[in-house]
Amino acid sequence: MSQFEEKTIQSETIFKGKVIHVQVDTVELPNGNTSTRELVKHAGAVAVMAITEANRMVLVRQYRKPLEKTILEIPAGKLEPGEEPDHCARREMEEETGYHAASLKQVRAFYTSPGFADEILYLYEGTGLTRGKANPDEDEFVERVELTLDEAFAAMDAGEICDAKTVAALYLWKNKVLEGR
């Protein structure tokens, strides 16, 4: 056991939903004391940073109930059981935006909120885009939006772009532009 590791003594699932499961764990701390941890278990997700030939980022405008507002974000979605991230990235981008990418390359993977959740998000870059018709899920209402780098940063400054995955994608895009890639 490392000097920081917490040993699980007991684990209780308190909620099982379509998107998340919630469990409460009793843990032994490195100093021998016990504590409680509330954990959100998630299958993982993907997001796609897609830049068109016209040098515009493809985003979706979508209402987010936890925030009680509409925001702009890169196309993203939850992994289905047994689904590979590459397949999910392609599926989500095509469903939400109608765009097909000739090439999808994973550029990062990160945990969205490791203080209480195990969700890992795989961030992809989509290139060689061909525009088609979006086909969102029946409970998904989205509008495709395409912004230049400056417009996207202005949207972030205005609070329209406020989620971590899209903010990370904007800075990656900006770095690529500054490096001339």
Automatic annotation (TrEMBL):
Nudix hydrolase domain mapped to chain residues: 40-169
SUPFAM superfamilies reported in the protein's UniProt record: Nudix
InterPro entries for this protein: Nudix_hydrolase, NUDIX_hydrolase-like_dom_sf, NUDIX_hydrolase_CS, NUDIX_hydrolase_dom
GO terms, biological process: nucleoside phosphate metabolic process; ribose phosphate metabolic process
Hydrolase among keywords: yes
GO cellular component: a single term: cytosol
Signal peptide residues on this chain, from the entry's feature table: none
Family, similarity comment: Belongs to the Nudix hydrolase family.
Protein name as catalogued: ADP-ribose pyrophosphatase
